């Protein structure tokens, strides 16, 4: 992995370990004496702001550079979290909601440029594996953050969010200092492509195949989130204690952390649509198995199948948009992916719990059917390595093949060890 990638992996881990707002905001506000309604409204504003921030981040990054967008996101997030603390101590709920919305909107900016810079700085044949490591940094941070947050809350609830502001500022400093020498081509490809047509999200949405991919991500997000959103209700209806649900969720997290990188050593050799379609299919099968009453052992098997869907699909799923996007639209393509995924996660609990109220555990059979629709969209929407390479060569006849032309790199000659089907040894 290149130096910029290591910087972003470390920064991601630091930032995620210190991300407490989403986990503790409602409890923090109710401890401050706010009504549960206002606490829930602030949390909803945070979720909406994160989605809006991804849109904003894609535009800023493509126009002004990845490094600038990340630094802006982190420093402004730190400032607005301190404003949120002040609003909470004043006791004004509407200032808290406004501060949460603004902080989340600016916090959401950083991910598209970070992912775009990783794409620029990584050899194509290594990108799927690097994405697995990036997700590992996220997942380790997500595992540590609740424990650290609980410990800090014993000292002071305000300290919890001062630490989050500090971790954001630290990531911003890391971006400004450690990435200062990143070549311009790895910071903003738009600046080096004078012949590129005007950039906009409209151009992203005119890519019909990519829109099918976004649809698959949206549906997969709705399906996947039923694990944490609806499974607890299902287990309660079956008479299981809450500890069973907690154990299954922990099994999911530990399996992803332990297996995603080793499994990706295999799946990085696959065509992107094979990996993503297989993973989404496993997600649907795992959820459907939750509808079958097979005792604790059956729940464990279903959870592992559901989890392996995430493990198999996610690295290729998040690598794909950056490598098929035109250079001047790379951050926008990645932002569109983030938004589709986050919308699925946001509306999924509402849909799932409503369906559960009507059909009970059969909701997981419905999830299986939705997963099948997502698989079909992936097979129709994700281009093969050969298709991407041919399109790139046709659009740039006077240039050497773009470094972003493929994920599983098959441009090396057979004597260098590349397989003819696009895999790498």
Automatic annotation (TrEMBL):
Keywords: Cell membrane, Membrane, Transmembrane, Transmembrane helix, Transport
Membrane topology: Multi-pass membrane protein
Domain Major facilitator superfamily (MFS) profile: 4-386
Region annotation (Disordered) ranges: 391-425
Record GO terms (molecular function): transmembrane transporter activity
TM region positions: 7-29, 41-61, 68-88, 94-111, 132-153, 159-179, 208-225, 245-263, 362-382
Main location: membrane
Record GO cellular component, one term: plasma membrane
Biased composition (Polar residues): 391-405
Domain of life assignment: Bacteria
Matching InterPro entries: MFS (IPR011701), MFS_dom (IPR020846), MFS_trans_sf (IPR036259), MFS_Transporters (IPR050171)
Pfam family membership, one: MFS_1
Location of the protein in the cell: Cell membrane
SUPFAM superfamilies: MFS general substrate transporter
Listed name of the protein: MFS transporter
Native source organism of the sequence: Dactylosporangium aurantiacum
Organism lineage: Bacteria, Bacillati, Actinomycetota, Actinomycetes, Micromonosporales
């Amino acid at each position: 992995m290149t130096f910029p990638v290591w910087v972003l992996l470390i920064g991601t881990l630091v930032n995620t370990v210190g991300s407490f707002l989403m986990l503790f905001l409602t409890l923090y506000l109710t401890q401050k004496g706010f009504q549960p309604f206002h606490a829930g409204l602030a949390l909803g504003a945070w979720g909406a702001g994160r989605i809006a921030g991804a849109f904003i981040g894609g535009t800023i990054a493509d126009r002004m550079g990845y490094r600038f967008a990340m630094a802006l996101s982190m420093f402004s997030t730190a400032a607005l979290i301190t404003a949120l603390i002040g609003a909470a101590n004043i006791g004004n709920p509407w200032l808290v909601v406004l501060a949460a919305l603004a902080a989340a909107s600016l916090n959401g900016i950083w991910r598209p440029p970070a992912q775009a810079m990783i794409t620029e700085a990584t050899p194509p044949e290594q990108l799927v594996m690097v994405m697995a490591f990036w997700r590992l940094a996220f997942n380790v941070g997500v595992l540590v953050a609740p424990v650290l947050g609980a410990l800090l809350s014993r000292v002071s609830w305000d300290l919890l969010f001062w630490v989050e502001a500090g971790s954001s500022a630290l990531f911003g400093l890391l971006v400004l200092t450690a990435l200062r020498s990143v070549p311009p081509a790895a910071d903003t490809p738009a600046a080096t492509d004078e012949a590129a047509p005007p950039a906009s999200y409209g151009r992203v949405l005119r890519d019909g195949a990519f829109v099918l991919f976004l649809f698959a991500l949206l549906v997969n997000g709705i399906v996947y989130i039923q694990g944490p959103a609806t499974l607890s209700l299902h287990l309660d209806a079956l008479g299981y204690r809450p500890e069973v649900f907690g154990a299954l969720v922990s099994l999911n997290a530990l399996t992803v952390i332990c297996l995603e990188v080793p499994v990706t050593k295999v799946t990085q050799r696959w065509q992107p649509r094979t990996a993503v379609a297989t993973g989404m299919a496993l997600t649907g099968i795992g959820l459907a198995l939750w509808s079958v009453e097979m005792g604790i052992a059956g729940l464990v098997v279903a959870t592992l199948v559901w989890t392996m869907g995430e493990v198999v699909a996610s690295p290729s799923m998040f690598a794909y948009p950056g490598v098929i996007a035109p250079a001047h639209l790379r951050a926008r393509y990645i932002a569109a992916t983030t938004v589709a995924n986050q919308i699925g996660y946001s509306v999924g609990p509402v849909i799932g719990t409503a369906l559960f109220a009507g059909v009970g555990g059969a909701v997981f059979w419905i999830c299986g059917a939705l997963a099948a629709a997502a698989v079909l969209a992936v097979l129709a929407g994700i281009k093969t390595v050969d298709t991407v390479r041919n399109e790139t060569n046709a659009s740039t006849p006077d240039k050497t093949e773009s470094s972003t032309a493929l994920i599983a790199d098959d441009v090396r000659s057979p004597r260098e060890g590349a397989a003819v089907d696009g895999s790498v040894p």
